[in-house]
Amino acid sequence: MDRLLVLVRHGQSEWNLKNLFTGWKDPDLTALGVSEAREGGRKLKELGLTFDVAFTSALSRAQKTCHLILEEIGQPDLPVIADQALNERDYGDLTGLNKDDARARFGEEQVHIWRRSFDIPPPGGESLKDTAERVLPYFRAEILPRVLKGERVLVAAHGNSLRALIMALEHLSGEEIIQRELATGSPIVYRLTQDGEIADKQDLAA
């Protein structure tokens, strides 16, 4: 039985390019982001991978990435389920700020704490712990059961919502997962055992 789970962070967005805290705002992909998503799809096609279902967030940068990947692997009509449970971390009062401007306004140390601590949220926003508490119940209820019954599942989402999933899959601590960088548009391929443990992992970041 092929218990396949592929996670991919969306391609570069317009706000990634401008170095802005994005969160739940909805900028489009850049031309580079489109290319990254298509390249991710080509890598999956080279491995001969296809899917039974795809999940994505309520945000267009993840949805477009998902669609571009499915186009590249020849499955443009695959069912795609979108849910805000998979949205990026909400950056609260930091949303829309340039990261350099935020450091000037709040202090470099404080911004570093908000970005890189597991459980300290920015004002009005979510910590990674908060994000995990939103993402993981949805994953365990809606996505993991489908993988465990043998469906091949693609999840196109965001750096922090995917960190939450990776933390659970790889049994990482909060301190370990905040150090994990995820390349835009680059799939991570997991094959799971019947107990939901990792049997094999391929990170397709080149």
TrEMBL record:
Pathway recorded for this protein: Carbohydrate degradation; glycolysis; pyruvate from D-glyceraldehyde 3-phosphate: step 3/5
GO biological process, one term: gluconeogenesis
Subunit structure: Homodimer.
Active-site residues, as the UniProt record annotates them: H10, E88
InterPro entries, alphabetized: His_Pase_superF_clade-1, His_PPase_superfam, PG/BPGM_mutase_AS, Phosphogly_mut1
Catalytic function, reaction form: (2R)-2-phosphoglycerate = (2R)-3-phosphoglycerate
Protein keywords: Gluconeogenesis, Glycolysis, Isomerase
PROSITE patterns per record: PG_MUTASE
Site (Transition state stabilizer): H158
Name this protein carries in UniProt: 2,3-bisphosphoglycerate-dependent phosphoglycerate mutase
NCBIfam families: pgm_1 (TIGR01258), PRK01295.1 (NF002339)
Coiled-coil annotated residue ranges, if any: none
Family affiliation: Belongs to the phosphoglycerate mutase family. BPG-dependent PGAM subfamily.
E.C. code: 5.4.2.11
Record's function text: Catalyzes the interconversion of 2-phosphoglycerate and 3-phosphoglycerate.
Binding site for substrate: 9-16, 22-23, 61, 88-91, 99, 115-116, 159-160
Species: Segnochrobactrum spirostomi
